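Could you show me just one protein sequence together with its fold in C-alpha cell form as a worked example?
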Amino acid sequence: MKKHLILTALILTLCASNILAADFKVDTEHSQVLFKIKHLGISTVSGRFDDFEGSYSFDPEKIMDSTAEFSLQVESINTNSPKRDGHLKSADFFDTATYPTLTFKSHKISDSKDDHFKLQGDLTMHGVTQPVVFDVSYQGADDSWGKHRTAFTASAVINRFDYGLEFNKLTEAGSLVVGKEVTITLEIEGVQ
C-alpha cells in the first residue's frame, strides 16, 4: 500500500511538472504591443499595434530552452491620431504597402536569473533584419477556468534608423522632430 502511494505521488508530480513545460499561443485579448518615442526632444509619444499574433515555448524550470515567435500587421498602428497614423503608414516611415509585417524570432536566452532573462533574436521591420535583445520578466502562471496561462513583460530599445526608417525634420532649435530610439514594450499573456 505504501509503495502504491509513493508511486501515485511520483506520477502526480511528474504530470504537474509536464504541465509547466508547454507551448503557448499569445492571447491577443489580454496582451499588448506598445511603443514610445521622443517628439521634439522634449516629450514622448506612445502608440500600439492592434493586430498581432505569436507563440512561445516556456518551462520555468528550463528557461534557457525557451523560444518565441511573433508577428504583427504594421497597418494596425494606433497612436490615437489618424493623421499621424496615416503618415507613419506612408513611404516616409513604415511603407506598409511594401512592408506590411513586422516579425521577431528568438534564437537564444541568456542572463537568466530568478524570473528575469534576456531574449535574443532577429527583428525584421521595413525589409531589414537586425538582432535585438528583450529584457524579459516572467510574471507567473495561472490555471483558472481549465486553461494554463503564463505572462511576461518584455522591453527593448531599438534605433529606427537601423531599419531604414530615417525620415525626419529638424526643429528651429536643431532637435529631431521624431527621435531615433524607440522603446518597445510587450505585455504578453499566453494560453496553452
The CA atoms of residues 2 and 8 lie 10 Å apart.
